[in-house]
Amino acid sequence: MEIQLSPCQPLRGEIEVSADKSISHRALIFSALAQGEGSVNNCLEAQDIRATCNCLRQLGVEIKAKQGRLIVRGNGWQDLQEPDDILDCGNSGTTMRLLTGLLAGRPFLSILSGDASLRRRPMRRIIDPLERMGASISSRHNGLAPLAIKGQRLKGIDYQLPVASAQLKTALLLAGLQAEGPTVLREAEHSRDHSERMLSAMGAGLRFDGGEITLRPGFALEPQDFQVPGDISSAAFFIVAATIVPGSELLIRNVGVNPTRSGVIEVLESMGADITAENCRVIGGEPVADLLVRSAPLRATVVEGSLVPRLVDEIPVLAVAMTVAEGESRVDGAAELRVKESDRLAVMCSELNKMGGHVEELPRGLIIQGRPGGLQGARVDSFADHRIAMSLAVAALTATGETTLTQAEAVDISFPQFWTLLRKLTEIV
Ligand code: S3P
């Protein structure tokens, strides 16, 4: 699908963005392991979450929609059944990595695959530590999906994570819950901590503190009524849009602002953005706020080090903000972006440069010479990556002339209402 975009009027009014993808995946998977009926309120309805639901159903888990909630009937670990076909994780790295940790300890054969993008993404990072725990996992080309998992008895591990990855951390926690003996995970840089919060609330024997997580197995997981907040990674597109389109004033309600995810707000504020968090509250163990964003001129900044895992999915849209900020910005320590749904460093560099940006690609980051009003409309492509599609749409809002975005349907992965919401606010799409 192609979409035509032009410069827009100020963004004004109130919106809610789609539900948090990371929390939705976890709420479904963890509920499937609990004894009894749990529910997920405001679960994200998008392709990645559909992949997780379908895989869980193939494992014998009952998931039903009832009055706007998903009801998950788990019967503990013992009741999971061998799937009679390949588990298709679609485009979703979270589905594949979390389910691999779960299935590593189940006494049957599972085969996980996905689309062309997912079959290019590195799985060695989960295979190695899971094999140290006793798992048996065969992969293609030394660490690429499809993965064939023959469930084994697992033992706990003491492991320093070589990459700051919440998917890896959660895969190991799911394996550790079934293992003999404790599992200790050490993180040099903090990745998102939703799993720790949710598993603790469910009664898991989990301690987490200052980059070290200790999990003692043997505690049954209690079902919960999970409440999923809005996704800050989806809100980020509208936060940047309202910041860079002059005259905007936009209230984004019900956004999850967990400190392990909210780096994007800090960076934009350091660039001069005007963002006010209102009505701050805690819902289901997660901090939530309404964000009021008013447009403001931006200046250049540097994103690096421990900030990167706290905004890893927001770097494409931050690159757009940097392109229209005054001065030279730099992103460093972000090599992980090369192994996301697309190579996000290469793609943002090529597509923003087609729009007149001055972006230079580094092995682990970007250097961006920013200039307010510096972008022009062009024909650009999402590379079938949802976050690239939405970032380029935001860039088009301030570009001179018309932009054509190809493979615009990629937004369905995490934010299917994106185009409708943007059209409602701007009436330009
Ligand atoms: C996610 C973790 C991050 C993030 C992804 C979702 C999660 O990936 O980029 O969109 O839900 O755990 P990594 O674990 O690979 O950093």
What's a concise summary of this model?
The chain is an alpha/beta fold and 429 residues long. The protein contains twelve helices and 23 strands.
What does the model show?
The protein is an alpha/beta fold. It has 2 domains: 3-18 and 231-426, Enolpyruvate transferase domain (UDP-n-acetylglucosamine1-carboxyvinyl-transferase, Chain), CATH 3.65.10; 21-215, Alpha-beta prism (UDP-n-acetylglucosamine1-carboxyvinyl-transferase, Chain). 30% of the residues lie in helices and 28% in strands. The chain is built from 12 helices and 23 strands. It has helices at 21-33, 47-58, 93-103, 124-132, 166-176, 194-201, 232-244, 263-270, 315-323, 344-354, 386-398, 418-426, and strands at 3-5, 12-16, 35-41, 62-66, 69-75, 87-88, 109-113, 136-140, 144-150, 158-160, 183-186, 205-209, 212-216, 225-227, 249-256, 274-283, 286-294, 302-303, 327-331, 358-362, 365-370, 379-381, 403-406. The strands form 6 sheets. A 4-stranded mixed β-sheet has the order 2-15-17-16. Strands 4-5-3-14 form a 4-stranded mixed β-sheet. Strands 6-7-9-8 form a 4-stranded mixed β-sheet. Helix 9 (315-323) links the parallel strand 18 (302-303) and strand 19 (327-331). Helix 7 (232-244) runs parallel beside helix 11. It starts with a strand and ends with a helix. The chain binds shikimate-3-phosphate. Shikimate-3-phosphate binds next to helix 5.
